[in-house]
Amino acid sequence: MSSETTELLGLPCIMPNQAQKHVTHNEALRMLDALIQLAVKARDLASPPPAPAPGERHIVAGGASGAWTGREGEIAAWLDGAWVFFTPNKGWRAWVEDEERLLVFAAAGWVDFTAAATQADSFGINTEADETNRLAVKSDAALFSHDDQTPGTGDMRILINKANIANTAALLFQNGNSGRAGIGLAGTDDLAVRVSADGSVWADAIVVDRATGRVSFPAGSDYRERLVADRTYYIRGDGADGNDGLADTPGGAFLTLQHAIDVVTGALDLGGRNVTIQCADGTYAGFDMLSPQTGAGLIALRGDPAAPGNVVIDGAVSIAAGAVLHVDGIKPVNAAGNCFNVSTTALVTFGAVEFGAATGVHVLAEDGANVNFTASYTISGGASRHIVAARQAQVRYTAALTVTVTGTPAFSTAFAQCNLLGLIVANSATFSGSATGMRYQSFRNSYIQTGGGGASFFPGSTNGTDSEGGLYG
To answer: Where are the beta strands (DSSP E) in 391-461?
Structure first.
């Protein structure tokens, strides 16, 4: 404090041995009365109002004139019939009556207090903010609602923005200040739901591809995607099972038939739609289809119907447990056993295929399974047997088709075999070409129906046999 005025408000001080001390004291009170709980009538007047009320105060606007000349930004107070001016310090607050708005004096002059508050370095509600959590709230609940006061648009959005794709923009859920779940963009622009048991190691539970919207479950799920349109999965020798299988490119196609079958039977609800597994030219390993599809629709394994030999399946294919599959445009071979094992009420239909060499059976149907040949096909390699229907299974040629045998393949047991209540219905088929080995075997109460085709109906070099209640005719 100087010898005459206070340092902050400039209030006059009573001096030692001063006469008429009450004058100085009253002056200080008058200044305090003008500045404490400061409220001004307005801040948009550049010249004094014509008839101010006692104690009336204003913030002098720019371009001041008259008695206010040169007083821009100061507080003008009408006291004892004269204008008295007060120069504000940084941090002074003033309520503007005609605007119902609180102002604060800053380096830029008088500014809206609310706007100034939004630029605070940190803000805490019922707790302290820190350098990391610059906004901190302790509360049982927090409400973010649309603006029905201004009013606004009726919308309400919370925006979380990050700098680069490698950064994170997410909501984190904690227990005891240790992370347990998160939703957001974590080091990628794909939306992920992540979980953690300890706040350190995280696993992606759900990932939504930013480009396609396709949902994946990296940890596995019982959820099935319900198809709304037919779908094609592509298989290529230069593909990868980590792809989505939806494009006929190295970066889009699957690598193996097994993975494609697992996706279709394990992750989809066909919902009346059809799925095609389209194989590019090449050689692929066999696969197992040991569970049925979910939802009505057709699953088709397709290669090149015009040239089935271009798409080779080398190894056993096992289809069971009520699974249904249509096969077209491929060439099955197996140097170690059967090509197709169809069992336990499964259904396989064959279109234009080419059967190559096998040490076992080209097509074995057993235990109530059904196999239907629906289009003309080719046999270019021998086997122990071409078709077998056993234990109440059925093999049927359901259309007037031609089976073309090339190269005189050998069938070491028989071309067609039926046993244990099996049924082969071949009267719609015509067989062209020659083979070596027995033409047929029917035994143990089974029936091979050729529609009176005679003993030489099937390809072979020796007649067939029927025994133990087996029938042929």
So the answer is: 394-397, 401-405, 410-419, 423-425, 429-432, 436-437, 440-443, 447-449
| pTM above threshold 0.85 | no
Bridge partners, residue 195, by sequence: 181, 203
CA distance 326 to 350: 6
Identify the CA nearest to 394 among candidates 460, 343, 437, 319: 343
Q: What tens digit of pLDDT does each residue of 338-356 get?
A: 999 999 999 999 999 999 9
HSE-CB for 337 with a 13 A CA cutoff: 8
Q: 226 is written with which tokens? A: 């319900």
Instruction: Sort residue 300 into left (φ over 0), alpha (ψ -120 to 50) or beta.
Output: beta
Contacts (Cβ under 8 Å, ≥6 apart) of 278: 232, 233, 234, 235, 248, 302, 303
CA 74, CA 319: separation in Å to the nearest integer? 91
**Distance of alpha carbon 215 from its chain centroid, rounded?**
3
Q: % helix / strand / coil in the chain, to the nearest 5? A: 10, 40, 55
- The β-bridge partners of 472 are 448
**Residue whose pair of structure tokens reads 């080419």 in the numeric block:** 354
